[in-house]
Write a structure and sequence with these properties.
Oligomer: single chain
Order of helices and strands: EEEHEHEHHHEHEHEEHEEEHEH
CATH superfamily of the largest domain: P-loop containing nucleotide triphosphate hydrolases
Strand content: 25-35%
Number of domains: 2
Number of helices: 10
CATH architecture of the largest domain: 3-Layer(aba) Sandwich
Helix content: 25-40%
CATH topology of the largest domain: Rossmann fold
Radius of gyration: 23 Å
CATH class of the largest domain: Alpha Beta
Largest sheet: 6 strands, mixed
């Protein structure tokens, strides 16, 4: 028996006047996966997520979230969907504990807010007013609020914005635990490292359309065969490898760029010339490279 996808979009569009923010998007998010959505500002990411969560009605097409129509079945969906939005706000005077207790009261069988506060590192801030929390602490509070109802699906929008590198890494491991516990995760992020590390599959959205969809490995393999090999070989005539790929030399460090068979060609050539390279390394197209090529030169950090 085929498992119903956690999210299904079929031919979805959303326009605002003359602006087509989402243009004929179709995709499935499978139950139990971390599904990443990446793209530059204005690409349609937020509009897409808002339709998944029932905050916007599609102009055309069908959206199903956990089998529900997010608009018609909003009340039912709220009991099984958790949402953390980057731009969320709370009254400045409310304390962390008051917010957790208030949101817990919305659900029939909420998760222990004390446990969530401990796991996400805000247990020492329970008596702190919202306006006094740092940006990272506010983010973690909103994540706790999104998990209070033991959701089947949780949407995390720019999860680690405002967190230092150590806290970011810790959050990544916690997100994996959420997924491993059976909860489906939709992750909107502009951190390439985060998307590559966490997401089982990724949709790259650009100009309201899906520009690429697949696992991180599939995306880089499908969209580029470029490879780079670097090594050190003092006194070596690197230009003798020009037949294999583009060669450059800097302080005895040789860099060769070529296609997917580059490594085999370099290895054979070095063997024939009896050269023993030092510090040899290889690189292939990264998700960042793919993003730049598909969106016209904007890096994710700039987006």
């Amino acid at each position: 028996m085929t498992t119903q996808p956690a999210v299904r979009l079929e031919g979805v569009t959303r326009s605002f006047g003359d602006l087509m923010a989402v243009n004929d998007i179709s995709l499935d998010v499978q139950s139990g996966e971390i599904f990443g959505i990446i793209g530059p500002n204005g690409a349609g990411k937020t509009t897409t997520v808002n339709m998944i969560c029932g905050m916007l009605r599609p102009s055309t097409g069908t959206v199903r979230t956990l089998g529900y129509d997010p608009i018609a079945d909003e009340r039912k969906l709220r009991q099984v969907l958790g949402v953390q939005f980057q731009e969320a706000e709370l009254p400045g005077a409310i304390t962390t504990q008051e917010a957790l207790e208030l949101y817990s009261s919305f659900y029939t069988n909420p998760h222990s807010w004390k446990e969530l506060a401990e796991v996400w590192g805000i247990s020492q801030k329970l008596n702190t007013r919202f306006e006094k929390l740092s940006g990272g602490q506010k983010q973690r509070l909103f994540i706790c609020l999104a998990l209070l109802n033991n959701p089947q699906l949780v949407v995390l929008d720019e999860l680690t914005t405002g967190l230092d590198p150590n806290a970011r890494r810790q959050s990544w491991e916690l997100v994996k635990q959420i997924r491993d516990g059976g909860t489906t995760v939709v992750l909107v992020t502009h951190f390439m490292e985060e998307a590559e590390y966490l997401a089982d599959r990724i949709a790259l959205v650009n100009e309201g359309k899906i520009a690429a969809l697949g696992t991180p490995a599939e995306l880089t393999a499908q969209h580029s065969d470029r490879r780079t090999v670097t090594f050190t070989a003092p006194g070596f005539d690197a230009l003798s490898l020009a037949r294999i790929g583009h060669v450059s030399v800097s302080n005895d460090r040789v860099t060769i760029e070529g296609g997917k068979f580059l490594m085999a060609g370099v290895a054979n050539a070095l063997r024939e010339m009896d050269i023993d390279p030092v510090d040899l390394s290889t690189e292939h197209t990264s998700l960042e490279d793919l993003f730049i090529s598909l969106t016209g030169g904007t890096t994710m950090e700039e987006a």
